[in-house]
Amino acid sequence: MPALADFKVGVDNVIFSVDLVQNRLLALLIRRNEAPYQDQWSLPGTLVRQGESLEQSAYRVLSEKIRVKHLYLEQLYSFGGPFRDPREAADSFGVRYLSVSYFALVQYEEAALIADGVSGIAWYPMDQVPKLAFDHSDILQYGYKRLRNKLEYSPIAFDVLPEVFTLNELYQLYQTVLGEGFADYSNFRTRLLKLGFLADTGVKVSRGAGRPASLYKFDAEAFAPLKDKALVFV
Amino acid sequence: MPALADFKVGVDNVIFSVDLVQNRLLALLIRRNEAPYQDQWSLPGTLVRQGESLEQSAYRVLSEKIRVKHLYLEQLYSFGGPFRDPREAADSFGVRYLSVSYFALVQYEEAALIADGVSGIAWYPMDQVPKLAFDHSDILQYGYKRLRNKLEYSPIAFDVLPEVFTLNELYQLYQTVLGEGFADYSNFRTRLLKLGFLADTGVKVSRGAGRPASLYKFDAEAFAPLKDKALVFV
DNA sequence: ACAAAAGTGTTTTTTATACACCCATGC
DNA sequence: GCATGGGTGTATAAAAAACACTTTTGT
Predict the structure, then answer these.
(1) How far apart, in whole angstroms, are the C-alpha atoms of residue A109 and residue B135?
(2) A222 closest CA partner among A205, A198, A202
(3) Is B57 exposed, middle or buried (0-12, 13-18, 19+ CB in 10 A)?
(4) Which one, of A79, A77, A98, A78, lies nearest residue A145 by Cα?
(5) How many contacts (CB atoms, under 8 Å) link A and B?
(6) List of chain A residues whose C-beta atoms are within 8 Å of the C-beta of residue B77
């Protein structure tokens, strides 16, 4: 009977937000202040504690780094080959480090970063992310792919938009994440309204010049029957 | 500093195959011969050994249970709450059991089950699967969902079809997994052929009565540019 | 008045769906 | 010749894509 591996399980979070003012997609990164990979940027993570579920652990990491009410979170993937963490290297048949990654999208406007004064923390625009510690660059890319899919196929956008929003704000969010190459505003608008789960509040709001926009809200009840329908928003 | 949890990591496989003769979707189950859940059916699984990657472990489970050349395998999900395995219960702050599940689709015709004479092993039609041990019923359902998605959006069918196959065989495979409620044969045919990665070998084959069918083969090269294109086959 | 942003409508193209029908073979 | 499964074509409906145009505001 071959010997079983003993594991510590880490949770690493890929945390995204969208800055709707500057139209930038951001990822939350932490600057490591200890070996290995000292002073390199990495995903926020932690090791799972006794009595704690994986998801609890993921929420804990998140809440230790940012204060935010509105978010979406789900499990991403588990990376568990031997030797992915250099801390194993010295004693390769000792404890293994398995990383269960989670993916989160949080509301940028309300998210307050919690600086602990020891390690750095920052929102990085996705196109400026440096090479990360461990295999975190791979995990980040994987999360980015998931973000784009989720946005297209499910209503996670409404978890991070304000209670009421203009269709243009919604459009900006999609465009920022998915890039330029998709439907124009007019077609996007028509498609989404036809789906029937965006309720016009009647309230108008004026953002500087131009015609005032209607504020809409997401109607979860009207959306319910569309669950599992493999919607495509874009 | 709160104490970290110590884990053993298990790999549980959701293994599907499609019987093209009887048009049945099958799942591979193992009858447990020890506590807990003695004599109940479960997913084939194992614990990860020293020096072994998660994926290696998944392939090992598979190869211990069936001999098969043609298959598709990918990671499914990680289930890791405390108390999901009763073996933890006695000593809840001792070792935790985390299950990383994998999903596989294997070729039914060539798959030879390996009976070890101790525990039972069997292909169960998906609509006759009993309640499983642990949380394996949930995992199986999750895998079933993934199977249907994968089949619709990616070319995994060709990993388990013979080198050459008729369009009708392909259609039967899709219909067996996805159920009756989808495109008829004629439209399925047209759509797939238009995608351009099915090459007609010119060879005809006669299955009993009726006009002989053309044998087709999957042209991986012609498919390559369609990768990441979010194809829909159905 | 005019620029800017919101919102509507129209036209064209592509894709999905439902069938009707023809073709080649075994019995 | 006719049942059986293979394969093609057509007619309709729905969805996607491109883009022109109107409306309402601030300056």
Answers:
(1) 39
(2) A198
(3) buried
(4) A77
(5) 91
(6) 75
Q: What is the DSSP string of A112-152?
A: EE---SSS-EEEEEGGG--PPSTTHHHHHHHHHHHHHHHHH
- Strand D lies under 7 A from the Cβ of residue A232: yes
Domain with CATH 3.90.79.10 in chain A: 6-153
C-alpha B80/C-alpha B92 separation (Å) is 14
Q: Greater confidence, B158 or A233? A: B158
Residue B130 pLDDT exceeds 90: yes
As ranges, strand D nucleotides with an atom below 7 A of a protein CB are: 3-10, 16-20, 23-27
List every span in chain B annotated with CATH 1.10.10.10: 161-226
Residue B31 scores a pLDDT above 90: yes
* Cα-to-chain-centroid distance, residue B182: 21
Q: Judge whether residue B187 contacts strand D, using its CB and a 7 Å cut-off.
A: yes
Question: Which residue in A69, A134, A50, B97 sits closest to A59, CA to CA?
Answer: A69
pTM to 2 decimal places: 0.92
> Could you give the C-alpha distances from B102 to A124, A162, A177, B75, in angstroms and in order?
33, 38, 30, 4
Question: Which of the residues in chain A have pLDDT under 70?
Answer: 81-93, 230-231, 234
CATH 1.10.10.10 for domain A161-226, yes or no, is yes
The answer to whether A78 contacts B82, with C-beta atoms less than 8 Å apart, is no
Q: How far is the CA of A141 from the C1' of C13 (A)?
A: 35
pLDDT at residue number B230: 67
> Which of B1, B4, B153 is the best mutation test for A, with the most CBs of A within 10 A?
B4
Task: Give the pLDDT score at B203.
Answer: 95
The pair phi, psi for residue A144, each rounded to 5°, is: -65, -40
CATH no., domain A6-153: 3.90.79.10
More confident residue, B91 or B191: B191
How sure is the predictor about B90, in pLDDT bands with cuts at 50, 70 and 90? low
* Predicted pLDDT at A89: 58
Q: What is the pLDDT of residue B125?
A: 98
Contact between A96 and B52 (Cβ < 8 Å): no
